[in-house]
Design goal:
The chain is of the alpha/beta class. It has a domain at about 30-125: Cupredoxins -  blue copper proteins (Immunoglobulin-like), CATH 2.60.40. About 30% of the residues lie in helices and about 20% in strands. The chain has a five-stranded mixed sheet with strand order 2-8-7-4-5. It has a three-stranded mixed sheet with strand order 1-3-6, with no helix packed on it. Helix 1 runs parallel beside helix 4 (about 165-185). The chain starts with a helix and ends with a helix. The model is unreliable at about 10-25 and about 135-165 (pLDDT under 50). Its main location: membrane.
Amino acid sequence: MEFLLSQICFFLIFLRFITCGSFCEANHTFYVGGESGWVLNPSEPYNHWAERNHFQVNDTIVFKYKLGSNSALFVYKEDYYNCNKEDPIVILEHGDSRFTFDGPGTFSFISGHKDNCEKGQKLMIVVLSPNQTKAQTSLSPTPAESIDPVLLPAPAPAKSGAPLGFVSWSFSITLMMIIATYLCI
């Protein structure tokens, strides 16, 4: 009976880790500037908008603007501060341009239209690693660093020669689910 119980518990833990991987991946879509869109004078400064949101790997941002009237340039940090449009990493110029974050770090965008960047149309977004929370990072010019997960103490081992009882298995399953859930956040 205990062998069957241990097999069922192992299967449940294995299933939890598999489903955790599929549900933990971020894939939210954010519209830059909210209702204002990607405009010269938004209702809220872009960096304030970015600080209010929680961006993770695989999230997508959408720059909404009239086709041909503007563009968004994904640029290096130095180019962001200097409004340098000469060598962008990516040019987004399709009106409803989408950009998906492929990793954690700081992502800088500027307007490619005339002198809009110099007038403040630029955006810096911090994308969190899977183990970070918004409180552990702030908008900064350096890439966000991964935060090591806090390890939970393991359950005490059973006495030598004594089989693990149902209570011990329940505790182990609960602890494993807590750890799996934490790693997914």
